[in-house]
Amino acid sequence: MKTSAITYTIRPVIILLVALPLNLYAQESSSYSMKEWEELLDKPQLADFFNGIFDNLGIIVDETSEEFTVHHKGNHFTLSKGINKASVDYTVHLKPENIANMKRHGSDEEISSDEAYKIMSVLFSPLTKASLDHPMLKKPLKRKLAGIENLIHVNLISNNNKNITSHSLIFINREWIVAEGIHGTPKRTYSITPEQALDYQRHIFKAIKNDTRKEWNRFRKWYLTWRKNVSTKV
User: Fold this and answer.
1) What is the set of domains in the chain, with CATH numbers?
2) Is the pTM of this model over 0.85?
């Protein structure tokens, strides 16, 4: 009985000793991710790069569960801890290495076409998923009128054609699924440059932000013209 009692007493101490370093690691990783964003966004050229893409962007760092918000202020950014879901335009999930890569590619005074590709390759799928969560883009009639297919492949291609980042858009059960990589047989395939991806994000964000019938009709007309230049129907 004494041996059993001793084992029972020591076990919580062992658990505490194991959990404490893990908790400290999570806090350090969480703090590190936000610090990386602060250093990344302290670049005037990035304010221009993301102009018209978002006003308030919620960031969730999957491996640390850290949540913070990036506020676009025109010519600079500010950050705040936590996410107010009612006030952010999008919420995207990223990994610490994604943030580190973005910081590295946006660290100099200019963003080259190659760096633009590398930055957009990180945000490409998360931003697409966030924008497709808008109720307007889930309505079957609206999708039919806009000619939006229910299985689409999208390829983001670097300007030197050496790198490609792809995802598949699948509409099922009134929900859009954004799956990284190529899946299934598409009804349409897009091949877009980083500049064309940014152009799309600016137009869809404007429609989501204003959220009026007039603005959505304007987006639909723009989208149908844009689509002719960047896609092929299979």
Assistant:
1) 30-111 (3.30.1050.10), 114-234 (3.30.1050)
2) no
Q: What is the DSSP string of the chain?
A: -HHHHHHHHHHHHHHHHHHHHHHHHHHHHHHHHHHHHHHHH--HHHHHHTTTT-SEEEEEETTTTEEEEEEE-SSSEEEEES--TTT-SEEEEE-HHHHHHHHHHT-SSS--HHHHHHHHHHHHHHHHHHHHTSGGGG-HHHHHHHT--SEEEEEEE-TTSS-EEEEEEEEETTEEEEEES--S--SEEEEE-HHHHHHHHHHHHHHHHH--HHHHHHHHHHHHHHHHHHEEE-
Between CA 220 and CA 234 the distance in angstroms is 21
Digit-coded pLDDT (tens) for 95-108: 777 777 666 655 55
Task: Give yes or no for residue 9 having a pLDDT over 50.
Answer: no
Alpha-carbon torsion, ordered 57, 206, 226, 179, to 10 deg: 30
